């Protein structure tokens, strides 16, 4: 009987149990979760910012950065940049908001952070509309909006605007001489021109006109090269559109700079800003407060005080005393003062536009520059003519002279013309004999 041996077969592993598969799954999920948590901790700020931006874009009426090209700041960033909004970083405070200097040390960037008071905005839509409105404002004489912060914190809702930082204080600082600041007559005219151009851009350079409503010296900042920049757009309103001449609005602004026509009718127009600019022109000439505390109303107002002198052409009666200590163009300052009176006319229809204001000021400055150029050329020409007519030889000065001797005459402006090749002399012989005889008689006497 044959012996049969079993044929060997390859070993087959038993199928893994269900408990082992579950263990591997749990371990894998744990590793992925740990890695995700680690990445989240590292990139937490960036991830949270993207999530908030996504939520903001999904909400109806929210601000869209990709269209506005604005930066959306985190509240934590702004806290750090202002040292938790400390007093040492406070640039100014008003009834609407406080403005802080923000320093982003890692980026080497400085901004101005405007943090409104809790009740400044009646709704979130009001804040978003302001952001959208200001995002389209681009002009070298207007402070630019850099970004915003829209966030709910433990202290409530934060609605913050972030502007470019302007380093040299406000026009008010220069008017009152704060920190020894002062302005020459030419700087005053250039500041008025720049401010008028900025406000004129709001009125005419936008798709829809904007009325500032709070133009005053403290809202005109001084940048590099003494360039003015209009700021604080907390009270801006869209202007009239189409055939409408005005928009109806509650009275908001600063006493003294408020347009009387706006106050009496509630009709807001771009000429309301023109009135405020007119007050500033008068202040640039006189450095006087808009309302004098030592005089009763209405004589305390700068328009009533300056008007009589400017109408008579006597600008020196109201001129800032600081301008009397250095060369000053009285004609240009008179022009600026009289233009200020036009801007503050009681009836808005008689006021110039912002474009006309800066054009007239530029023309006055241009005429003044041309006058001084012509005067300097005349002086230089006279100096050259005088220097050519004066020759000094051995301490003796010879001016223009003329010698005449019957048929012998010549005229010269300098001794160079006495060179033999440059002068033709005709001498009568009888005259020559008479001269020789006279010379001999003089020698005999000696």
Inertia-based shape: elongated
If you compute it from the alpha carbons, what radius of gyration comes out, rounded to the nearest whole angstrom? Answer: 41 Å
In terms of quaternary structure, the protein is single chain
The share of residues in helices is 40-55%
Largest sheet: 6 strands, mixed
What is the first-to-last residue Cα distance? 186 Å
Mean of the pLDDT scores? Answer: 79
CATH class of the largest domain: Mainly Alpha
Q: Tell me the number of helical segments per DSSP (H or I, 4 or more residues long).
A: 13
CATH superfamily of the largest domain: Transferase(Phosphotransferase) domain 1
Which segments are poorly predicted (pLDDT under 50) over 5 or more consecutive residues? 1-9, 52-62, 391-427
- In terms of DSSP E residues, the strand content is 15-25%
CATH structural fold name of the largest domain: Transferase(Phosphotransferase), domain 1
The main sheet orders its strands as 1-5-6-4-3-2
Order of helices and strands: HHHEHEEEHEEHHEEEEEHEHHHHEEEEH
Question: Helices and strands: which structural class?
Answer: alpha+beta
Number of strands: 16
Q: Can you tell me the number of structural domains?
A: 3
Features:
446 residues, alpha+beta, Phosphorylase Kinase, domain 1, Transferase(Phosphotransferase), domain 1, six-stranded mixed beta sheet, two-stranded antiparallel sheet, disordered N terminus, kinase, ATP binding, serine/threonine-protein kinase
């Amino acid at each position: 009987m044959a012996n049969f041996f079993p044929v060997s077969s390859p070993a087959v592993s038993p199928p893994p149990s269900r408990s082992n598969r579950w263990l591997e799954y749990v371990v894998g999920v744990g590793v992925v979760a740990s890695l995700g948590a680690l990445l989240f901790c590292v990139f937490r700020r960036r991830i949270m910012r993207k999530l908030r931006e996504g939520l903001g874009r999904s909400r109806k009426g929210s601000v869209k950065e990709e269209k506005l090209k604005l930066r959306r700041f985190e509240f934590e960033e702004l806290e750090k940049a202002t040292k938790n909004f400390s007093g040492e970083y406070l640039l100014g405070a008003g009834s609407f908001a406080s403005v802080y200097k923000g320093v982003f040390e890692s980026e080497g960037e400085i901004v101005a952070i405007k943090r409104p008071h809790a009740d400044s905005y009646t709704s979130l839509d009001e804040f978003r509309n302001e952001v959208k409105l200001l995002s389209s404002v681009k002009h070298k004489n207007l402070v630019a909006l850099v970004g915003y912060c829209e966030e709910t914190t433990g202290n409530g809702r934060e609605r913050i605007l972030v502007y470019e930082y302007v380093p040299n204080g406000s026009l008010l600082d220069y008017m009152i001489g704060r920190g020894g600041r002062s302005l020459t007559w030419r700087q005053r005219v250039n500041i008025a021109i720049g401010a008028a151009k900025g406000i004129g851009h709001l009125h005419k350079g936008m798709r829809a006109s904007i009325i500032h409503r709070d133009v005053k010296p403290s809202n005109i900042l001084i940048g590099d090269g003494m360039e003015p920049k209009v700021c604080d757009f907390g009270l801006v309103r869209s202007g009239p559109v189409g055939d409408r001449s005005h928009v109806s609005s509650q009275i908001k602004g600063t006493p003294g700079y408020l347009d009387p026509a706006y106050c009496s009718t509630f009709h807001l127009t771009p000429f309301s800003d023109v009135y405020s600019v007119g007050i500033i022109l008068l202040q640039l000439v006189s450095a006087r407060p808009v309302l004098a505390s030592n005089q009763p109303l209405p004589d305390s107002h700068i328009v009533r005080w300056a008007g009589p002198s400017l109408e008579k052409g006597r600008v020196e009666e109201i001129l800032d005393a600081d301008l009397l200590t250095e060369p000053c163009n009285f004609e240009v300052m008179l022009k600026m003062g009289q233009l200020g009176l036009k801007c503050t006319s009681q009836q808005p229809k008689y006021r110039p536009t912002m474009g006309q204001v800066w054009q007239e000021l530029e023309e006055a400055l241009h005429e003044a520059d041309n006058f001084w150029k012509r005067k300097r050329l005349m002086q230089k020409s006279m100096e050259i003519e005088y220097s050519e007519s004066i020759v000094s030889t051995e301490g003796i000065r010879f001016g223009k002279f003329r010698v005449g001797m019957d048929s012998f005459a010549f005229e010269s402006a300098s001794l160079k013309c006495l060179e033999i090749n440059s002068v033709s002399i005709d001498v009568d012989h009888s005259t020559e004999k008479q001269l020789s005889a006279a010379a001999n008689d003089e020698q005999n006497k000696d």
